[in-house]
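pinned: reference chain
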Amino acid sequence: MELDRISSLPNDVTEKILSRLPLREAARTSVLSSKWRYKSAMLQDLKFNEYDWRESQNREVDDYDDQIQTTFVNMVDHVLLLHIGPIRKFALFADEVATRDLDRWLTHLSRNSIKELVLCLWVPKYHIPLCVFSCQDLVLLDLTKYFLMDSNLTEVWLKPPSTFKGFRSLKSLQLVGITVAQNVFENLICCSPLLERLILLHCDSVTTLNIDAPNLKFLNILGIFDVVNLKSTLNLTDASIGVTIYTDGPNQRWVPDSWFPSSSSNLLKIFDHLPHIRKLAIKLHCLKYLSLGALPEKLPKSCEYLNVLSIDICFDDPDAILTALCILRSSPALQELEILMDGRKKLTRTPWVVEEQKCSCLDVSYNCTLSQLRLVNITGISGVKAELDFIRFLLLSSPLLERMTITPPQFPKPASVDGFPKLVKELLQFKRESKHAEIILLDP
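pinned: its structure tokens
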């Protein structure tokens, strides 16, 4: 009799094998032998994807015309009813589930000491039930609202009870498109003392961003913010900060009044709380936000650990260029630099806000040495003088540079395509401080 090697594997190994199968296929292993009968019912990580379920059902109907389809809701109910033991992780991706079904499943999970909860939903109107806030063993909470053609058709609210004192064990929080009140968000952050990872994307109800999280190590934020305050983030090592504006109405290219600091500068206020940052991305209009207020030539405290930097720069805005140079001068350990050249016109100040522009594009001083820079990736180059000056500066200031990759816009105008050979010739003639520097130009 041939030895059944799979059935003799340790339980933790077979559980890892089953966890990598679609739940539907994992359940079918119960017919293999008596040893496998209850293994799928004891899986601690459960993932349900309604789209994948529909696809598998359609394939089966094609093969068996008399197949009676089980609904997605019935399948989830069946798995939860027959499940044996604890549920460590529950992940749900659904777009046609009734709110009463969601409430029933979450109530069941709240009684099982769940540690990771992932919900990605497209529902007309849904309030996360209060039972979720009783899950004090949660280590990871990921709430995402699907963004389809019209995001106004859906809304997911996060509103805890008045007695809620935070998640004592939470280390990772992700909110995407969720409606959460300003004070609720701030309390959620400061009352989760172990929080290490925070992702906040497109949560338009949060306009003043106050982050008070002493153990935070990873941060990814993107939204329409009036103010960005990093109150206690001294352990942050990896951050992506994206700030944008409303684009409706005649004043869509104006700098919001709320961005102007009352004292000092936005740049200093942010970087004072990033002493251990290793990887940083400054996205969309964030560089413009940082440029407002007094701008030093170099930060008072250098970013000694910053190795990887990504910046979106509008080269029509000299203040943005100066801010980028200030950050570069303050980053002695920088090894990788990524620049997205923003071809949009710069944001202008409203007529009633008076602040002198720091200089013109012609007056920018490029005195800086990037002694550790090795890799540069530049995307969206159009060939204007300010862009070429910046590239020339990078080549002359980087003695250890190994490779610079330059990519034109993805959808260039015909004129930029016609001028590409001239651009290539000009770039290849630039002097380089590094003898080993290689310039790679990708075709438009």
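why pinned: Residues 63-68, 350-357 have pLDDT under 50 and may be disordered. DSSP finds twelve helices and 18 strands in the chain.
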